[in-house]
Design the sequence.
């Protein structure tokens, strides 16, 4: 006997399927929240998930994220591992990813290459097994235009070489890492880089970065519109080299030592640039004195 699907039957089947999908999503949401995940909703749909402590959630629970079809932001606190990254489900709408105090390695971070809509990645205090070289695997992500790596001496110039291979990058931030001026030169290959934050190396001896030498390097980054230099002693003579950046509109000197007369003169030399400066904190002063010496 032939079976005929009437419009009424089709509608009923669609209703049943939708109800099952909704039940699966609701059950997943409850399970994830019970495991400690903080979920953010937009117009009734879960669009954000924050897991403050990866130790509180299992691989099986993580895979329930597949039931959240509109998830756009995913954030992990301490303990994110290579295994967890590898076992994350397909998340077709994921745009923002961040972690803090992960144990992921360069091989592990390559798993993010699966998420083709990623626009922003922020890695705070990554572990000692992460130099950043694995970021080169993300070069084919078509929309990745924002990246932050901060808080680890292990992130070094090999990581900067990988960052220099991300062709769509427009905004890059790094501070308290092992990056040197040689590493910063690797960013010269980025054609779209408009915004750059460079904070001091995580060190009390050796080469300072940023320094006056850094300014000469950055003066070659012709696409820069916004530049934020942090935790350094910089001279007016070096900073005036930024006149070469015709696109530059904003210069932030965050916790930077420079005399008020030199700052006033700098503003005259860069009339089309909005310049803002803040005094170094006590912690910044300690590092500046160690790296640059006493006045």
Sequence:
């Amino acid at each position: 006997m032939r079976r005929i699907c009437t419009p009424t039957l089709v509608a009923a089947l669609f209703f049943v399927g939708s109800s099952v999908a909704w039940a699966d999503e609701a059950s997943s949401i409850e399970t994830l929240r019970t495991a400690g995940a903080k979920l953010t909703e937009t117009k009734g749909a879960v669009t954000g998930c924050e897991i403050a402590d990866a130790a509180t959630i299992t691989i099986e629970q993580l895979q329930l994220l597949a039931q959240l079809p509109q998830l756009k932001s995913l954030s992990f606190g301490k303990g994110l591992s290579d295994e967890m990254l590898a076992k994350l489900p397909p998340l077709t709408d994921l745009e923002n990813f961040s972690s803090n105090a992960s144990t992921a390695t360069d091989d592990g971070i390559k798993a993010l290459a699966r998420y083709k809509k990623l626009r922003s990645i922020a890695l705070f205090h990554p572990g000692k097994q992460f130099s950043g070289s694995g970021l080169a695997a993300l070069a084919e992500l078509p929309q990745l235009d924002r990246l932050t790596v901060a808080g680890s001496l292990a992130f070094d110039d090999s990581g900067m070489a990988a960052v220099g291979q991300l062709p769509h990058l427009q905004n890059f931030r790094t501070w308290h890492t092992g990056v040197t001026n040689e590493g910063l030169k690797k960013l010269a290959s980025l054609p779209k880089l408009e915004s750059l934050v460079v904070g001091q190396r995580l060190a009390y001896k050796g080469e300072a970065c940023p320094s006056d030498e850094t300014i000469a390097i950055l003066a070659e980054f012709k696409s820069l519109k916004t530049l934020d230099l942090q935790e350094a002693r910089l001279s007016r003579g070096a900073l005036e080299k930024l006149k070469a950046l015709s696109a530059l509109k904003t210069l932030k000197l965050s916790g930077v030592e420079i005399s008020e007369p030199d700052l006033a003169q700098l503003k005259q030399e860069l009339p089309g640039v909005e310049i803002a400066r803040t005094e170094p904190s006590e912690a910044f002063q300690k590092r500046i004195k160690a790296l640059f010496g006493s006045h």
Q: What stands out?
A: Residues 9-23 have pLDDT under 50 and may be disordered. Residues 35-151 form a domain with the Leucine-rich repeat, LRR (right-handed beta-alpha superhelix) fold (CATH 3.80.10.10). The chain has two domains: 35-151, 194-295. The chain has ten helices and eleven strands.
